[in-house]
Specification:
By secondary structure, the protein is α+β, with helices and mostly antiparallel strands. It is 26% helix and 39% strand. The protein has a six-stranded mixed beta sheet.
């Protein structure tokens, strides 16, 4: 599978789960609505809650969308989530989505929300996710952060 160098998924995650990903304890991220990806794509992690900062990134290597019970059975061994937590999160849905995560990278210097808002005063972190795309002048500095962390993957 090729690597997407034209866009990055910017995703909000509760701090405990964000740091579990960066500490290699959580290899799946669950979403009620899943990003549409055809290639391996880098995911920039925004830790919400009391952290309110971009803390690192990882690679989404696979997107699985299936019945919630099957999704739990397939992924529970590689996550810090509980079966009850899954059921609460996906309550009312037949299908759930999980993003398989690889190669986490914790940033030495986090990017706090206040710094992002210095550049983009009306910036609001997503409830779920959005895409950072090459050429989006407002968000280019976030894309550039990922590129600087992974120079060998991005040739611009």
């Amino acid at each position: 599978m090729n690597f997407d160098t034209e866009r990055i998924v910017f995703i909000s995650i509760k701090p405990n789960y964000a740091f579990d990903i960066l500490n290699l304890k959580k290899k799946w991220e669950y979403r009620r609505i899943s990003p549409q990806l055809n290639t391996r794509t880098r995911m920039m992690i925004y830790a919400s809650g009391e952290v309110q900062a971009v803390v690192g990134d990882c690679v989404i290597s696979e997107v699985v969308q299936t019945q919630v019970k099957e999704l739990i059975d397939l992924t529970i061994a590689e996550t810090t989530s509980t079966r009850e937590g899954f059921q609460d999160y996906f309550k009312g849905l037949e299908l759930g989505s999980a993003l398989k995560l690889e190669n986490p990278c914790r940033y030495e210097r986090q990017i706090p929300l206040s710094e992002i808002r210095e550049r983009i005063p009306d910036f609001m972190p997503p409830q779920n996710f959005f895409y950072l795309k090459v050429g989006d002048s407002k968000l280019e500095f976030l894309f550039d952060k990922v590129v600087s962390e992974h120079k060998n993957e991005y040739i611009r």
